[in-house]
Amino acid sequence: MDFVIISVPLSSTKKKHDRLFSLASQLNFGALSIASHLEGKGIQTKVFDPQHYSKAEQLPAVISKLKEYQPKVIGLSCISGFSYPNFKQYCSEIRRHFPNTPIISGGKDHIGRIAETVLEECPDLLLVTTGESELVHEEILFRLFKSPQESLKGIPNIYYRDANGKTCKPAICHAGEVNSFTSLNYHLYENFQNFPASIEVSRGCPFSCDFCINDKTRPFLKKRISQIANEAELLQIAYEDPEVFTYFQAPLFNMSIEELLELISLKKAKGLTFKWRAQGRVDTLTAEKVVLMGKAGAKVIDFGLESGSPNILMRMGKTSSPTEYLTKALTLFRAAAESNLIIKINIMFYIGESWETLAETFSFIETNISIINAISAYPVLVYPGGDFKEAIKSELNTHGGSFVENSFWGDRHLTPINPSFEFSYEDMQSLGVLFGKAFQTQRSFFNERKAGYYRPRVTYEEFSKQVSFVSRDSLPFSKSENEMLDNRNQLRHLLKLQRHWGKNENSS
Is-above-0.85 flag for pTM? Predict the structure, then answer.
């Protein structure tokens, strides 16, 4: 085997309930894209992801798999700060078992942003790629196959060690980007049938939201609809499921009317019946597009609403006209509901959050709960390598907020935020769970999650069995309609009480 990519599993999670259930998993489609590209160039490549092993079994399984394959080069993919502690351990343990095999790494949304630091903290690594890297990996491997001591000088988007162990910076950054997509070859991903299916439909995002980790320098690139349909056809065969749920992966889902009509036409012509979900922005979708998404097989839309508070929406730069923004959101939600789509909204608790702004978000959701099926709420988190942390210092101070800095978060190179004098990061985490309990039931949560978050063919009975072993307080949903209404009343009462108390404090 020429090259094996190890997808490093999470050592902890952003939301405490993210891995409450072993049914949850995420396919590393970035690693698979690299593997698919390399295989197409004649470089034997495999991806091994130990997610489904117990924590104690994961690293031994990786070592065993590497001994089986005996690759010429080993790659480690670390796409999250919540995987980084494992990543460091994997580096040293793999080096112990494979003392002469080059170990390279990547993960554009985390370690790629702090490549120089990663090389300092992981002495067994040869290099870190800093951006998307199909073409970059091709050049790296071409040189390493000639000789492990071959110079890596001149390859874009990498920090590497030279023959003397000195860290060298890339001569060129933000280069080596593909201008067309390689179709994902799922058979390169071991046990792919245990993971939800994904199709990458676009890269790049024209928006520049400060809090977002998407690469702001990458030009927007769409995959051709014919290629998406062909990949979906292969997925139906590979998963042996004509209605396989497929996540349309994209920083910005923005198919045009014409593209959606083409997808509808191709699905009909090919007899395709796969289902899919995608994330959408309120300011780029239209009601007509939403209806066509439903006709094209969409079952879930994740709307990045972010807040129901006009002040918060303007503060985060989401819109300069919050009334119009929220009105349009409702138009989209209604169109989705009329098309029998599941509507999930994502809420981000932001700088300056108060009991007043939370009450506004609560009110917006409650007023429109008949057309909202699921909710995910979480406080803003600062990712490494960007300008966001420096940019928000002044505003954070204005609202009495602060950065959370301790060894736990330092080890992950992540920085949570206490958003205001009224709330800590932990407060916001707890309130996020309360919002979930107030607006979604066990059944609605499962219906949303089984489409792209849980392993294929999972049943509600399997899910319910796992729920039975989890304490009620930890669940991000209510177990029944009545329990949900009780939780909603409690949250409403809490918001009302705290707002009243706050007003009295301010007046005194």
Answer: yes
